[in-house]
Amino acid sequence: MIENLTSYSKVDRLSAFFDTFELSASLEPARAGDVQARLIVVGAPGGPAESVILCLRGDANPEPPVLVTATVDFESPHNPLMSALPDQVRVEVDEIPTLRDTTAAFVAEALGSRCGRSAALNRLCEVMVLLILRSAIDRGAARSGLLAGLSHPALHRALVAMHNAPSRAWNSEDLAAVAGMSRSHFMARFRDVVGITPQAYLTEWRLTIAQRKLSKGARVKAVARQVGFGSAAAFSRAYFRKFGDWPSLQGRGAI
């Protein structure tokens, strides 16, 4: 049985993603074939922002006219939260006072040319995306997947536990206890809502973190240990199955 279950009663559903993946924004238009997302601020010319659209895939055709369009780089195509979101998420800024104020500051920086503009845009964009993601989670999700799991009143605690402590030897009983559910109910509900088993999700998350660490020059043995694999060999096999390449070929990555 795991210890201090009460420490999971109030959890942050998004911090692990922002800690793992860096976000940056640019006002330069996306290049042809680029898969980067776009953050679109909609509003009448000369007036305040009315809505914000996070467009992850496809084209957005907002009305009324667009005030600012920024290209958003989530650093990696393997960010599972971005993959879980719908193609577009639209939020009316008046629904969230903090988003309204942050968007106003973002538009002012985008349309101005003050020193530190790029740094300001990155930080404001990060806050805007965070607020949009909060809104998406609060609304829930109609389809199964990570977003649905993060929206679930009990399952999100198990997901956050895995996100925050991937190296821990989690078993189904531990995760069910974190979620406050019986093991059988937890296992069935997790698969129905998230779409895969808890252990499969944990492995995916561990490998996602590992890929980020290796890309920054970490070594295979150290990464295998840090993300909870029993050996570098087992880690390498799992990594190859997911990414189609050996971890020793990523970054410095030497064993």
Structural key phrases:
single chain, 255 residues, alpha+beta, Arc Repressor Mutant, subunit A, 2 domains, 11 helices, 48% helix, disordered N terminus, DNA-binding, HTH_AraC, AraC family transcriptional regulator
Main beta-sheet strand count, sense and barrel state: 5 strands, antiparallel
Mean pLDDT: 87
Contiguous uncertain segments of 5+ residues: 1-9
Overall tally of structural domains: 2
Distance between the termini: 34 Å
Order of helices and strands: HEEEEHEHHHHHHHHH
Helical residue percent? Answer: 40-55%
Tally of strands: 5
Class per helix and strand makeup: alpha+beta
* Gross morphology: globular
Read across the widest sheet, the strand sequence of neighbours is 1-4-2-3-5
If you compute it from the alpha carbons, what radius of gyration comes out, rounded to the nearest whole angstrom?
20 Å
Approximately how much beta-strand content do the residues carry? 5-15%
Number of helices: 11
